[in-house]
Amino acid sequence: MSVQVSQAVLDHGGAGAAIERWTLSSGQIEVSVLSLGATLHTVRVPDRTGALAQVLLCSERLQEILGPARHYGATVGRYANRIADSRITLDGEEHKLLPTGHGVTLHGGPEGFADRLWTGEPVTEGERAGVRLRLHSPDGDQGFPGALDVEVSYLLDPSGELAIEYRAVTTRPTVINLTNHAYVNLAGEGRGDVLDHLLTLEADHFTPTDERQIPTGEYQPVAGTPFDFRTARPIGEQLYEEHPQLAIAGGYDHNWVLRSPSKDGRPVRAALLEDPLTGRRLEVLTTEPGIQVYTANSFAGAVTGPSGTAYGPYAGVALETQHHPDSPHHPDFPSTELRPGEEFRSVTLLRFSC
Q1: Do residues 58 and 293 lie in contact, with contact meaning Cβ atoms separated by under 8 Å?
Q2: Reduced to 3 states, what is the DSSP secondary structure of residue 168?
Q3: For the chain, domain boundaries
Q4: According to the annotation, is 253 in a ligand binding site?
Q5: What is the pLDDT of residues 83-122, one digit of tens each?
Q6: Which residues are catalytic?
Q7: pTM score, two decimals?
């Protein structure tokens, strides 16, 4: 396997800073990563006939990367997903967060980690090789307490397994929830929607939400609902059914509670995505307790991919391994608190096959 490093100088918010691109290759699988947002930008994998396709939604246009595509494949934080009322309380002290609208703080605030230039360097660990990206988030960043030092590593092994590994430490008690926000279409980006993709989720419950898409705090059984993906079935099979949760989000944009979360730091299977037409498969394993599935319900052609196709609804699906949304307000959810002297660690594995 080889790791190549190339750099493109693009205008970042008028600053003229360099956005670096790293290319990781292993056999027929090729991955690219951008320093802007520590972004998983592209993944090229073969189908059952050996034909290669780029299977992540993306843009090569700077104005789209900085605008409507800003979360495509990015590392989102300091807190992925939603926090209600743009505030958290730690040790009796309230911290007001910068809002993103609709009475919530989404994906870490209006200038979250997806908007930052990370510092990267190539790394090799045994048979794995890739890139490690670092970011310093100062105390009070977007309202969050504590100076946070974060690392995200993308490591590819000879079999083509891509590991996304997160680490962070803080100077003050804070909350953290990091995820990758890639949109996948196993048929190839721009080649129709993902409604015929088969999805399996290792989850017996999901977290229903209110009208702001904030969890109510309950774990609702998936049995007998359109949220039951315990066995493989097409994403679109029940997407249009009358269900109050589907109406709120315009489709799937929910967190599933993993049945058997990791207890020893080893990733466990969270999801399997399959495209019957091409034979491509993506298995997702994680140490996180939940997975957010978002079917790109609100896409309206604002981003055009390398294929020349403008992305519409259901052009891809995001499988975001994470802690549950709004955990700081739900004591029964797994804790997202991080304190000085502790280290946040999280691992997600992406296994592509055909």
Answers
A1: no
A2: strand
A3: 2-353
A4: yes
A5: 999 999 999 999 999 999 999 999 999 999 999 999 999 9
A6: 181, 320
A7: 0.95
